Fold:
Amino acid sequence: MLSTSKIDPKEPLLVSSSLDISGSVFNDTVVRENCSLHVRGNLLGSLTIEPGATVIVEGSVDGKIIDRGGRLVVNNKGLAAYVTFDGPPEAEACGVLKINLTAIASNWERLSKYTEAECASVVKENAYGCGIEPIVNALSKSGCKIFFVTNLPEAKRVRAIAPNVTIYVLHGLYPGTAPAFTEVNAQPVINSLNQMAEWDAFVASRQWGGGCALNVDTGEGRIGLSMEEAAALAPHALNHGITLLMSNLNSDKKANHPLNERQISLFRDLHRIYSGIPGSLANSSGIFLGRKVHFDLVRAGSALYGVNPTLNLPNPMLPVIELRAHIVQVRNLAPGESIADNTTHTAKRSTRLALVSIGYADAYPYAAANKLQVLVGGYRCPVAGRQSMDLLPIDVSDLPDSTAARYGEMVTLIGGEIGIDDVAAATRSTGREVLSYLGNRFHRIYYAI
Structure:
């Protein structure tokens, strides 16, 4: 995929093969005969399409179009190029977190194309730490109509951005909170008979027909009704106002896993007796296990944010986030020396350390044995032992250009060659954990390209 930074803005863009561009194109563009162009942003210059050529634009086309016998597909989802900011000012913040909304929208569209079922978006835990409001805005403009959140406060935030979407609240209702669901027009995910009883009593007293989802434990050991409890409710499903039957796969990344097959079979049987009520079993990873897992609705979660939903395969999703932080000091260690709060790393040679303005207060993960790396001036450098509350030591001794590690320079902790899953693998965590733990002290840049 070609970045727009590598395109000369002063020259026309001549496409004479197959070209995939990440970002918006401002050049006048000519796509030659039988060639193809895919622009993951807006195309703002003039466009000439020669016979047999194909052009796909994920944003808008604003310039003059000359079609000489080709094909143009414009997936304008309302994500015009823009930038918005959140958090402390960039110059004052400990780090800068950039979130690509176009990539999130494209990831949702990719996942949608893997299935004939409807594709919902999971924006729980503040959209996996990325921020509910801009994420929901991008996804709803891209065509997503169903969202899953953790609790009522998150449901209210989604509703403020997307007044016409369906919202399911995964934690269901806490005691006494049923009236709030009518105020926000959200549906609880019922996880127990106690919740079902309270919800039934509320609906009967208010005559409210907003509906609810029923979550069943088919073997994953999470919250939810047992199979026996769910089967007993089935004859009265419509009386309970159930609009969705759902469960979760325990081994969602492992095709043909015996537990998956058992869960799919159990859910299929349950779905059959809940006749006419949509079923949902697959999350992001489950989408890639095939149609037998899809049923009527799939729930796209961490993959939207760039986490790899497949096991031991190349990541099919676009990267979404970039995290950078400042170098606040560079210092030299003699052999045998260490620095404060870093008893896990003692210099074995003369070492040059860059201290970076991020630490465990920002939930940046820890990895032993220098397995975690960052980019300094485009070069990989190891994290030198344990971080302190707000400082991360980087070993920059082997940098070919020592000037890349200077006071005030920025290093890349996530982005470029180092993806979320690389950080997760180095720290024995998951991409979901890395995302959701990122702190709130960053200057955040949300942008669409």
About this structure: Residues 258-273 form the longest helix (16 residues). The mean pLDDT is 88. The domain at 321-448 is CATH 2.40.37.10 (Lyase, Ornithine Decarboxylase; Chain A, domain 1).
